């Protein structure tokens, strides 16, 4: 059920309608209100609502900062948000915005539950490793004295912190009612960044200097194009066929003949596509896992490249989107 401590948000009309629903005995707050929310999220008006919601939340964040809020909290609840780097990075970027605005902020990672699909596909060891990597990403990309990343085991710990610090909670009602937020991270960040000066945007966006600590120490071919290629034997929907791989490689080689091609993927992806490279004896093509063994290391390789390319890629695409590096992507827009 919901964690008490955060007031409803929204227009007067929406708050009034919500109060009527919540006031229905026994089923109002526990069943009817979540059911109405789930219906809205599956309806034709959902894309419109997401844009409205993000714009409204961005305004609330800016108002909280401008009014001198003591602290701002973001919560990535792993029970309702997936263990994916891309979705999590949106929250990290919002925290970077807060840090550059001079606000105190905490990015909470709640691990009391794990997103059902991730629980089904990942072992306990893989889940724990992923959670540790998420904390590391937050710690490295949030180098501000008043901004921190904290892993907690219960949402109630967050509420206790909020109460003691008089903090503003981003997407407060959805957070306390454990509603998914990963649909909204990119759009909220986009609205926050849309009205600030370019100089502030440059400080918030990622650059190679942010990842010096994890950048591979060995020399790579240069200049180069980074090409993210996804491969999974658990979810093959975004895998490239051999024909697609060779076709994209030919396009990159013809358009950037003086550049090496750096294929960015995980261990399984690098192994799979290296066999295709050997099959055709493709020259000046290297693989990220020969230089990096982590998501952050791969991100550093991308940010040091002249161009990023992606065709049906995964969460790694968020890295160039959150930077000034040029990119060419053909991907399904989820959020």
Structure description:
The chain has 335 residues and is an alpha/beta fold. Helices cover 48% and strands 13% of the residues. The protein has helices at residues 12-22, 28-42, 46-66, 85-100, 116-121, 124-141, 155-165, 172-176, 185-194, 198-204, 242-255, 267-280, 295-303, 318-321; strands spanning 72-77, 105-110, 147-152, 168-169, 224-228, 260-264, 285-287, 307-311, 327-330. The strands form two sheets. The chain has a five-stranded parallel sheet with strand order 7-6-5-8-9, sandwiched between helices. Helix 4 (85-100) runs parallel beside helix 6 and helix 4 packs across helix 10 (198-204). The radius of gyration is 21 Å and the shape is globular. Mean pLDDT is 90; it is low at 1-8.
Keywords:
335 residues, alpha/beta, five-stranded parallel sheet, four-stranded parallel sheet, 13% strand
Can you give the mean pLDDT? 90
**Poorly predicted sequence stretches spanning 5 or more consecutive residues:** 1-8
The gross shape turns out to be globular
Number of strands: 9
Topology pattern, helix = H, strand = E: HHHEHEHHEHEHHHEHEHEHEHE
- What structural class do the secondary elements suggest? alpha/beta
What is the terminal-to-terminal distance?
Answer: 26 Å
Helix content: 40-55%
